[in-house]
Amino acid sequence: MSDGGVATETAFAVDDRLVAAVVRLPHSRPSSLPGIVLVDGSGSSERYEFAQLSRWFIEAGFAVLTHDKAGCGVTPGDWRGQTLGDRVAEARAALDALRAHEAVDSDKVGLWAISQGGWVAPMAAAEDPMVAFMILVSAPGVSPFEQEAASLQQRMRQTGEPEKLIEEASSAYWELVERLRGGESPNAIAAWFESVRNNPPYEHFLPGIFSNPAVISFFARIGDHDPIPSMRKVKCPVLLIYGEGDTLVPVVRSREILVRQLYAADNLNVTVETFEGADHNLHVGPPSTGPGGSHPLAPGYGQLMTTWATAQIS
User: Fold this and answer.
1) Is the pTM higher than 0.85?
2) Count of H-run helices and E-run strands, the chain
3) Which class does domain 6-143+226-312 fall in?
């Protein structure tokens, strides 16, 4: 197995703080490499994650930059206190940092993003005309509030819950959203949720969102984000990738919305691929057994991305 290239620790400034990052380069490289910045989804994430993804791009001849999210690794802050705009500022600073690397061709640097990053990367690309290409994996075409509503329904259908209960859960969810929109205290929401979380229909809500006041606050802050305006400003080539078995994002609806917005902006360099049997993270099947077991990824996933990205900068 490849060792993932030559990794160099670095950092870039965002406002008044330094964000820790790592740049990985192929061992054998030409004088000027294409590059890609990886933008993570929700939750915590630090710069040494996405090893397999980085390996694919390094083997294809790309420089890869990954960075800590706020409050992760050695980077100060707290991602739960951010806005999507804060995450966009980090992505743009990461792009500038990779472009400035002596081994990188600044005109050939693109973005890869997954899940929540699918809201972030298009905002960065809309603001930065130098973005050479963009790969979006499991990108929602709807707002965070709408995405979680769809996820709730899809997860309940997957476990065979009756439609009446799904309707009750959906109504209860939107009632909760209105409480968030109305500015109810995240501490009060968390305390209330703890008292009902094991009762129908709340037992199907994701406790990772509604049990932690800081995460509730973050969710309330980003919940009404509309992805359409930024997508209509994206001019670079775009690859959209989905897993057919994704229960977190409304795949068909998201795919249709995002493609329609890109076409409306006269961006016709759009490729869409959906992997049968793959989930939100493009995993297929159960994790492998034994120490360090990991979920297998959809066959052809890495090859699709690296081949497509190489074609965009050739």
Assistant:
1) yes
2) 11, 8
3) alpha beta
